[in-house]
Structure formats: structure tokens, C-alpha cells
Automatic annotation (TrEMBL):
CDD domains membership: PBP2_TRAP_SBP_like_5 (cd13675)
Transmembrane intervals: none
Protein name, UniProt field: TRAP transporter substrate-binding protein
Keyword Glycoprotein carried by entry: no
Coiled coil regions in record: none
Chief location category: periplasm
Top-level taxon in the UniProt lineage: Bacteria
Subcellular location: Periplasm
């Protein structure tokens, strides 16, 4: 009974949008100082400022609230407010988003950002909105590179038989099978220990994540394969969002844009400083990779998306200048 009454009061307060103060928890997988941490903090600071303190916030970093797949589920049921996540597991909830996870699709950061900031990005945020989630803004993780403990990877032959952790994403898994590795999907919070204990030989992530997670402690080799662009997205729970007034929704959208901008700035910084940082920390960095043979072998993964949706979106993304 008590819970019922508390629930009624909470619902009434949400319905009027007039609560005195509400603390928003922003979950993400990485450290508080990472590119996601910087973005989560920018969200909180902007929201607090725009709302004159009606909303405050705090980060729940480092996968404290679970892996990215768990956190997305938490948003759907309303146990979580807000998450900054890669699109890694998002295609399991919104399959149209797999289009963004296709390997060797985006030419460079400029291409990816223009696509996400334009019509295509808006359409995909709307698709997210049809699946019991609220897509507030596209943020960024970065171009992903292969690291491993065994040997320098220069050609697909060097990937042969490597046990490589991938995200829980069937496009990525199919791509790595094609390129010769043995993909092992795993939630990010389990990854460091799995690398340390040799459960997997390698993994793939952007410089941002390799540095934020100090993977140099457990990985010797990194190859700048840039095999796929990894978008991130600021997602809200519909349970929270649908209870907001239009003005409050506007604040959340603005805060998400500020979050994405702060994260992208940090990605830029780390892309500049990253390779030196990796070397300083003892990694052997292979920079001159011929991507064409990797791309040819990864192409089989396109059918994971195109079998269901055709090639129109792929062509549209390629055409973005
Ligand atoms: O979103 O799972 C991953 O490898 C992601 O790139 C990471 O958690 C940041």
C-alpha cells in the first residue's frame, strides 16, 4: 500500500513536471575522465544550468550499472534515467541502427559526423524512439582498432585464429569471422579481466577507450585498422522523458547536444595525442595498414543489414559529402 501511494505521488509529480528537484543518473561504461565521462558531465552541467537547478545529476561510470546492453534494458523499463552508450548492442533493440555499424563504411570523422548530424541521423534517432527508448543526440566513440597480446597484426592473415572480443553486435562478429579472427562477444565490464587472464587474445576499440581503460597493461600490440566507426548516442528512458513538460524536454535535448560536443572534442584531442600515449605506455603501434584486404573480407557482414533493409541506406550514407 505504501509503495502504491508513493507511486501515485511520484506519478502526479511527474505529470505536472513540477517536482522541486530531481537528480538524473547518467550511466556509461568508461572512467569519469574518459570522453564519455566528459560528455556525461557536460550533460549534467548543462541540464542543471538550463533548468536553474530543478534537475541535477551524477555519473554512474565504469559500468557500475551494468554493460551497455543491460543499461539499454534499464532505460526501457525505467530503472535508469540516461545513458551514454556506443551503438554496439543497440542494433539488438533497434535493428535499423546496424547500418551505422557496417565496417569500412565511413571515410573519416567528418563523414561520420555529417551523416549523424544530418537527415540520416535524425531518421535513426526517430527509429530509436519507436522502440521504447528516447534518442536525444548522436555522440561519439571513434574509429576502432585491433589490439592483442600475441603478435603484430598487419594483414588479415595475422588475425587468423586470434580470439578477439567483440561487442554484442552481429555485424561486427560476422565482419571478424570474415577477416579470419575468432570473435567472442562480451560485455565491456568483463573485458579487462578477460584480457588479463587470457580468456581472449585481443579486442578492438578506439584510441579513446584503449587509453581510458589502460589496455596497455594487458595488450602489447595495436594496429590502426580503423575497421569501423563506432558512434555513441545519448539515450533517455521513455519512463522519465514522457513525463517531462515540453520545456523540460527541450533542456534535455540541449544538454545532450552539449554532451555530444564535449565528447567529440575529447575524441579529437585523443586522436591527436593517442598514438604517442599508447607508445609511451609500451604498446607497439602499427600505423601503416593496407585496409583494402581487410575491407574485402569484412564485406560479407553487410548482408546482416542489407538482407533485411536493402542497400538504400548504405548508398545514402556513402553519398554524404
Ligand atoms: O562504448 O564495448 C565496447 O567496446 C565499447 O566501445 C565501449 O564500452 C565504449
Amino acid at each position: 500500500m505504501k509503495h502504491f501511494i508513493t507511486g501515485l505521488i511520484a506519478a502526479a509529480v511527474l505529470a505536472t513536471g513540477a517536482q522541486a528537484q530531481q537528480k538524473i543518473v547518467v550511466g556509461h561504461a568508461l572512467s569519469p575522465t574518459s570522453h564519455y565521462g566528459v560528455g556525461a558531465q557536460a550533460f549534467i552541467d548543462t541540464l542543471t544550468e538550463l533548468s536553474g537547478g530543478t534537475f541535477t545529476g551524477e555519473q554512474a561510470p565504469a559500468g557500475q550499472l551494468g554493460g551497455e546492453r543491460d543499461m539499454i534494458e534499464g532505460l526501457q523499463i525505467g530503472s535508469l534515467d540516461l545513458v551514454v552508450t556506443s551503438t554496439g548492442p543497440l542494433g539488438n533493440f533497434v535493428p535499423e541502427v546496424f547500418a551505422l555499424d557496417l565496417p569500412f563504411l565511413f571515410r573519416d570523422y567528418d563523414h561520420a559526423r555529417k551523416t549523424l548530424d544530418g537527415e540520416i541521423g535524425q531518421e535513426l534517432l526517430a527509429k530509436i524512439g519507436e522502440n521504447n527508448l528516447v534518442g536525444l543526440a548522436w555522440s561519439e566513440n571513434g574509429f576502432r582498432h585491433v589490439t592483442n597480446s600475441q603478435r603484430p597484426v598487419r594483414t588479415p592473415a595475422d588475425l587468423e585464429g586470434l580470439k578477439l572480443r567483440t561487442m554484442e553486435n552481429k555485424v561486427h562478429m560476422t565482419a571478424f569471422s570474415g577477416m579470419g579472427a575468432a570473435p567472442t562477444p562480451m560485455a565491456f565490464p568483463e573485458l579487462f579481466t578477460a584480457l588479463q587472464q587470457g580468456v581472449v587474445d585481443g579486442q578492438e576499440n578506439p584510441v579513446t577507450v584503449i587509453t581510458a581503460s589502460k589496455f596497455w597493461e594487458v595488450q602489447k600490440h595495436v594496429s590502426l585498422t580503423g575497421h569501423v566507426y563506432s558512434p555513441a548516442v545519448v539515450l533517455a528512458s521513455p519512463v522519465l522523458f514522457d513525463g517531462l513538460t515540453d520545456e523540460q524536454k527541450g533542456w534535455f535535448m540541449e544538454a545532450a547536444k552539449a554532451s555530444a560536443a564535449a565528447t567529440r572534442a575529447e575524441v579529437n584531442r585523443l586522436e591527436e595525442a593517442g598514438v604517442a600515449l599508447l607508445r609511451e605506455n609500451g604498446m607497439e603501434v602499427i600505423t601503416d595498414i593496407d585496409k583494402a584486404p581487410f575491407a574485402a573480407l569484412a564485406e560479407a557482414s553487410y548482408s546482416v543489414y542489407t538482407d533485411q533493409y536493402g542497400t538504400e541506406m548504405v548508398d545514402r550514407i556513402k553519398a554524404v559529402q
